[in-house]
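TASK: fixed-backbone design
INPUT:
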């Protein structure tokens, strides 16, 4: 490239200097921030100044009148601009984090759910990290883990103001915050404060959500009818993972007995005489976790009172508990409650004949893909939802012509499936006189405007899932996100929709995958002798070869 071309490029760069100066000044005056756009503007300005000053010294000399002054000024401009570029590049590298996470489960990256939470931050969140610099307690390592995690957060939002405090140098601050364990990360916004003692992404994102919200959303599991326990059981029949998932996603979880409800006004739980809990139809959710006993008339009326006020409920069915052969005292009669909205769980078990939509070993284990526009299905990952031993969810519209609500199928079997109504003979083939051809709706949502005045225009929302196992602790067919199914996300999306948490996101725990490298005895012996004798022998051989050539 000849000098004439270089001078021309330098001249063009010179024309950019003044516009870039004006643009940078306007941006700084308007936003008052020294952030990425202004840094890039100044970098381009510095490069333009270097190009102009280094390629057009004669122009500077003519304009300034002397060769010495022109050459000196040209050198000064180049030096200042070069230093400016170095400074700006360093600032840019600190502001913009470029990292690559090579782990299979993205252990060192934040999830899309967290990114969504950070994008929606409107007010600043103060983050204070209390740590100890004592090397004997591993303080530096713990701080680095937290700092590494927070860098992922701050690279995606400017709403987090992070401060690090060494407990050894500022004990007064530790007492002010009542810190009892180190390290502890404190998230604050307005009067809300949350403390986290780990560097876990779930904990950090959950804390950010909590300090922003003034509403405590709650889920109550109904008891008193031999429902599935919410504590971990030995046979996988429990719902402990569902409870933990709710807690991990900012819900308060408790149990309620319908017998202790009061139907006057808002329903109140009097199980704990020291602290009565008043249910809020707008945000609280009842879960009927596969009862194996009848709900009596009094309990039914109390539940209906809450639901007709705009309440929300999730009904998890156990098809085997509603069979006519089951003794009355252990038989599920939840359909008596659901008939208020012309809903019911059918008798029978669905059979899937499409090999792409079922387990290879069991035609009653369905691999379903959610589809539709329901809010329950919002942002669901494209992975199968596993539902085992399900029955049909039915909606029979009323003939009265009144508003019957909106019934939306969520999960369905294929057209090659059928509902076997005689569970006793489930191994037999399709019976055209008794069985029902697919597709079979095995999960559905229902919404209807509340008929009661003075309820803030709330809608009653119900979700019916025809087998509770998808939310249970059962391996392979339950809620465990490590199983690879979409059950975890489907369950939490359901609760979010019921509680009308339109902005909620599902934060799933990260799974750590280990890939051990197994070697046999022969390979182990080879590795030992090749390192114990092979490497020293190789070094000795190279040394002798070099000595021999120089000899």
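OUTPUT:
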């Amino acid at each position: 490239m000849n000098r004439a071309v270089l001078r021309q490029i330098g001249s063009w760069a010179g024309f950019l200097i003044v516009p870039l100066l004006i643009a940078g000044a306007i941006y700084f005056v308007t936003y008052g921030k020294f952030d990425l756009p202004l840094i890039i503007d100044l970098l381009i300005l510095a490069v333009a100044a270097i190009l102009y000053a280094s390629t057009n010294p004669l122009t500077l000399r003519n304009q300034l009148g002397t060769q010495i002054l022109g050459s000196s000024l040209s050198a000064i401009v180049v030096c200042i601009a070069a230093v400016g570029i170095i400074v700006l590049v360093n600032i840019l590298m600190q502001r913009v984090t470029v990292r690559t996470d090579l782990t299979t489960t993205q252990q060192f990256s934040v999830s899309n759910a967290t990114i969504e939470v950070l994008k929606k931050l409107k007010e600043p969140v103060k983050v204070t990290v209390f740590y100890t610099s004592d090397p004997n307690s591993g303080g530096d390592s713990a701080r680095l883990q937290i700092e590494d995690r927070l860098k992922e957060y701050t690279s995606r939002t400017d709403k987090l103001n992070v401060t690090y405090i060494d407990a050894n140098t500022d004990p007064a601050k530790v007492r002010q915050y009542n810190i009892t364990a180190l390290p502890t990360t404190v998230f604050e916004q307005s009067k809300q404060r949350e403390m986290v003692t780990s560097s876990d992404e779930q904990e950090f994102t959950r804390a950010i959500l909590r300090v922003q919200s003034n509403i405590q959303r709650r889920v109550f599991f109904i008891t008193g009818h031999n429902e599935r326990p919410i504590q971990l059981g030995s046979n996988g029949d429990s719902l402990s993972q569902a409870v933990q998932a709710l807690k991990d996603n900012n819900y308060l979880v408790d149990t309620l007995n319908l017998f202790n409800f009061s139907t006057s006004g808002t329903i109140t739980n009097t199980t704990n005489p020291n602290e009565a809990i008043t249910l809020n139809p707008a945000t609280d959710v009842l879960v009927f976790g596969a009862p194996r006993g009848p709900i009596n008339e009094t309990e039914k009326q109390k539940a209906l009172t809450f639901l007709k006020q705009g309440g929300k409920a999730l009904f998890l069915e156990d098809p085997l508990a509603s069979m006519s052969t089951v003794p009355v005292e252990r038989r599920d009669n939840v359909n008596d409650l659901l008939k208020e909205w012309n809903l019911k769980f059918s008798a029978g078990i669905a059979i899937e004949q499409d090999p792409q939509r079922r387990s290879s070993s069991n035609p009653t284990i369905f691999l379903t893909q959610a589809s539709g526009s329901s809010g329950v299905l919002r942002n669901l990952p494209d992975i199968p939802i596993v539902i085992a031993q399900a029955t049909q969810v039915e909606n029979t519209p009323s003939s009265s012509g009144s508003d019957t609500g909106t019934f939306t199928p969520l999960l369905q079997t294929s057209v090659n499936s059928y509902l076997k109504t005689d569970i006793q003979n489930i191994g037999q083939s399709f019976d055209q006189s008794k069985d029902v051809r697919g597709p079979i709706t095995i999960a559905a949502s229902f919404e209807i405007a509340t008929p009661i005045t003075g309820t803030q225009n709330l809608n009653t929302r119900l979700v019916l899932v025809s087998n509770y196992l998808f939310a249970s602790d059962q391996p392979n067919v339950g809620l465990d996100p490590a199983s690879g199914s979409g059950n975890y996300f489907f369950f939490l999306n359901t609760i979010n929709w019921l509680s009308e948490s339109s902005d909620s996101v599902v934060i799933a725990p990260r799974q750590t995958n280990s890939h051990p490298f197994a070697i046999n005895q022969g390979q182990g012996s080879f590795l030992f002798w090749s390192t114990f004798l092979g490497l020293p022998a190789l070094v000795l051989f190279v040394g002798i070869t070099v000595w021999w050539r120089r000899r």
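COMMENT: Residues 521-550 form the longest helix (30 residues).
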